[in-house]
């Protein structure tokens, strides 16, 4: 099929992989939204040395300033919205994720965009445990200002008949939260952990990018919500072992059980947050997402992680706080 696609967040962790997948798909014309693009001009092709994505055209637009979005969706068939703000004060986060998404969706509807896809997060459900949860089974109960704003963004997309995709833990080159956060936790504890039996839905970022594009172009995927993860959940113990063996060992201390680890991390909220992740199931299952999709879940966690281990080693070696 031939389609004009507007992509937000095209230089980000996930959006850059969607852009790469789109450039390899015949007939897809990619337009990206950029705060740095000159205003008052038609979409312009990127050039060598540009800060935007190669092989695309760019239009100006800032989600924090809805007035700048006018005309961004003109001539577009599909909107893939990957941009989000994950840090800052609650008002700044809401301005981008909630109000910015609302304005973007309204512009897409005004322009006649036939399909809207939003890459959200399973964090809109709050903290687990979630074991084998299917779409529609868990309440929306976000535990942070960022997740609340992304839940609000979901509502705008769904009200317009769009498709919401919810990954949980995304790993791979460019990840600066999941694996680096675990490394920082283990540095804090100076010891391995035992007794972590939780199951987590995970997906490598390259597969996620291809899956987002495939869902955006699929004739079989209508409005609603889907979880996007490899079908096989990853035990926390396997995740930790991969970090120990392929990224960084947590010192030579005696392995800690969870009560001892919690006591040692009591003064560190971020460390306790990561311990909570390791000890509560966050397993979301959605076989229907992969059915009839021109994309597969790919390799399991072990093979995908091994490909990015070198990048992680280099990243954590130069970022001592993760």
Question: What can be said about this structure in brief?
Answer:
The chain has a single domain (3-318), classed as NAD(P)-binding Rossmann-like Domain (Rossmann fold), CATH 3.40.50.720.
Give short descriptive properties of this protein:
single chain; about 325 residues; alpha/beta; Rossmann fold; 8-stranded mixed β-sheet; two-stranded parallel ribbon; 10 helices; about 15% strand
Corresponding CATH architecture: 3-Layer(aba) Sandwich
SSE order, one letter for each helix or strand: EHEEEEHEEHEEHEEHEEHHHEHH
What is the strand arrangement across the widest sheet? Answer: 3-4-2-1-5-6-8-12
Number of helices: 10
Beta content comes to 15-25%
Question: CATH fold name, please?
Answer: Rossmann fold
Please give the domain count.
1
How many angstroms does the end-to-end distance come to? 42 Å
**Helical content, roughly?**
25-40%
**Model regions low in confidence, pLDDT < 50 over at least 5 residues:** 46-51
Structural class: alpha/beta
**CATH homologous superfamily - what is it?**
NAD(P)-binding Rossmann-like Domain
> Whole-number radius of gyration?
20 Å
Shape: globular
Mean pLDDT: 91
Largest sheet: 8 strands, mixed
CATH class wording = Alpha Beta
Q: What's the number of extended β-strand segments?
A: 14
Structure characterization notes:
This protein has 322 residues and is of the alpha/beta class. The protein has one domain (3-318): NAD(P)-binding Rossmann-like Domain (Rossmann fold), CATH 3.40.50. It has ten helices and 14 strands. It has an eight-stranded mixed sheet, sandwiched between helices. A two-stranded parallel ribbon has the order 7-14. Strands 9-11 form a two-stranded parallel ribbon. The longest helix has 22 residues, at 90-111. The termini are far apart. The relative contact order is 0.14. Mean pLDDT is 91; it is low at 46-51.
């Amino acid at each position: 099929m031939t389609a004009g696609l507007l992509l937000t967040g095209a230089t980000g962790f996930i959006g850059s992989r969607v852009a790469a997948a789109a450039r390899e798909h015949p007939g897809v014309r990619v337009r990206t939204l950029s705060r740095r693009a000159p205003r008052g001009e038609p979409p312009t092709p990127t050039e060598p040395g540009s800060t935007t994505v190669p092989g695309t055209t760019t239009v100006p637009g800032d989600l924090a300033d809805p007035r700048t979005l006018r005309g961004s969706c003109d001539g577009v068939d599909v909107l893939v919205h990957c941009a989000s703000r994950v840090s800052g004060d609650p008002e700044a986060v809401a301005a981008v994720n909630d109000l910015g998404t609302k304005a973007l969706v309204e512009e897409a509807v005004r322009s006649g965009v036939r399909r809207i896809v939003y890459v959200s997060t399973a964090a809109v459900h709050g903290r687990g445990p979630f074991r084998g949860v299917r779409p529609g089974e868990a309440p929306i109960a976000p535990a942070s200002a960022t997740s609340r704003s992304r839940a609000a963004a979901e509502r705008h997309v769904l009200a317009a008949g769009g498709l919401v995709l919810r990954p949980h833990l995304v790993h791979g080159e460019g990840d600066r939260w999941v694996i680096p956060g675990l490394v920082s936790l283990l540095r804090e504890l100076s010891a391995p952990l035992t007794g972590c039996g939780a199951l987590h839905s995970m997906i490598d970022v390259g597969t996620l990018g291809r899956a987002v594009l495939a869902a955006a172009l699929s004739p079989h995927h209508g409005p609603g919500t889907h979880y996007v993860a490899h079908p096989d959940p990853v035990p926390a113990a396997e995740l930790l072992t991969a970090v120990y063996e392929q990224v960084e060992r947590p010192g030579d201390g005696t392995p800690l059980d969870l009560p001892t680890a919690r006591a040692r991390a009591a003064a560190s909220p971020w460390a306790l947050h990561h311990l909570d992740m390791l000890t509560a199931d966050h397993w979301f299952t959605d076989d229907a997402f992969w059915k009839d999709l021109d994309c597969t879940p790919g390799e399991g966690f072990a093979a995908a992680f091994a490909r990015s281990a070198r990048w992680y080693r280099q990243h954590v070696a130069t970022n001592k706080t993760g």
